[in-house]
Amino acid sequence: MIEKLHQYKEELEKASAKTSEEIELLRVRFLGQKGVLKELFGVFKTVPNEHKKEFGKQLNELKNLAQEKINQLKTSTSTIEDAHGAAEDLTLPGNFKELGSRHPISLVRQEIIDIFAGIGFSISEGPEVEDDWHNFTALNFPEEHPARDMQDTFFVENKSGDEDLVLRTHTSSVQVRIMEGGKPPIRTISPGKVFRNEAISARSHCIFHQIEGLYIDKAVSFADLMQTLQYFASEFFGPNAKIRMRPSYFPFTEPSAEVDVWWGLESESDYKITKGTGWLEIMGCGMVDPNVLTNCGIDPNEYSGYAFGMGIERIAMNRYGIDDIRMFFENDIRFLRQFKSAF
Asked: Shortest CA distance to 136 belongs to which of 193, 176, 87?
């Protein structure tokens, strides 16, 4: 019987196969339910005790050899037949797999992050489901402010307590957490997704993306804010970019301003985008209100700071000539393929 085991080993060592079918036949012959090894393991029970040790050793070696041989043949087989039995030439070029591309929102988001990271701003992130303190109260929103109404905010049921929870309406909530948990100087931007209960149309959506910036230190002035935003405009819109600031109101900054960049009036599209003024609104900004600093544990008599915030969708729409914000969320492959060159 030992001699028979040696014969099987020799057979395996000499075995060859050119197709998957031949390999399968070899596998069934030795490792199948009715194969050689199944039969030999049955014979093992009848082997005298004094020979069982040697027979078992040889039997295990045969089993390992069979498995190794089959694996080797599968790896080295140079011809693979398709489902119809026709062999393919593996030396032919493979099928081209089309590369994906980055989403236009991601492209613009990363470009803005890179600009501010280049002048020392860190990146901060926070939860999308926020409490009333971080989303409203700490930012100096009075109780009667319309942003607290259901028309503008998605409220979330809080089963663990009485505190109101909302889907954050801006990434300023991240800035509150940074101020509470850190000590000036603070220089950070907070990119992220925000939510507002608005009707979905070509120009507005209930979900959009923001990047907000915050800088707090001693003797920070409005001139520092203007210089930072001019640098951003020059880097993003071109070295000849011009900005202007218009007085505005935000609960968390005082004074506050809207920032416009000169877009021009060279085409009919320019007139449409800028409403005939040549100026394009890109963000809101201002000096951090002393009440906000106090709420976050920062002494407004010692520190001052500025904040700004911009919507990524609006900037992306203008950069790529997109006239419907809903296209960013539909995942239409025909739309997304247009940004392949920017990957």
From this structure: 176
Q: Residue 233: inside a domain, yes or no?
A: yes
Looking at the structure, tell me whether residues 115 and 214 fall in a common domain: yes
- Same domain for 126 and 275, yes or no, is yes
d(C-alpha 297, C-alpha 292), whole Å: 9
Average pLDDT over residues 78-87: 48
Does one domain contain both 283 and 225? yes
Are 222 and 144 in contact by the 8 Å Cβ rule? The answer is no
The strand ranges marked E within 98-137 are 122-123, 129-131
Q: Look up the domain containing 325 and give its range.
A: 104-342
Closest by CA position to 110, among listed 285, 319, 287, 335: 319
Report pLDDT digits (tens) over 229-273.
999 999 999 999 999 999 999 999 999 999 999 988 888 877 877
pLDDT in tens, 289-316: 999 999 999 999 999 999 999 999 989 9
Sign of CA dihedral 204, 209, 215, 216: positive
| Pairwise pLDDT comparison (296 vs 197), residue with the higher score | 296
Split at pLDDT 50, 70, 90, the class of 9 is confident
Query: Which CATH number fits the domain that encloses residue 178?
Result: 3.30.930.10
Sheet holding 253-262, edge to edge: 122-123, 186-195, 207-217, 304-311, 279-288, 253-262, 243-250
Note whether 116 and 126 are within 8 A (CB).
no
- Note whether 72 and 112 are same-domain residues: no
CA–CA distances in Å: residue 286 to residues 142, 143, 261, 309: 18, 22, 16, 10
One domain, residues 168 and 209: yes
9 and 109 in a common domain: no
Comparing C-alpha atoms, which of 35, 37, 70 is closest to residue 56?
Answer: 37
Reduced to 3 states (helix: H, G, I; strand: E, B; else coil), residue 113 is helix
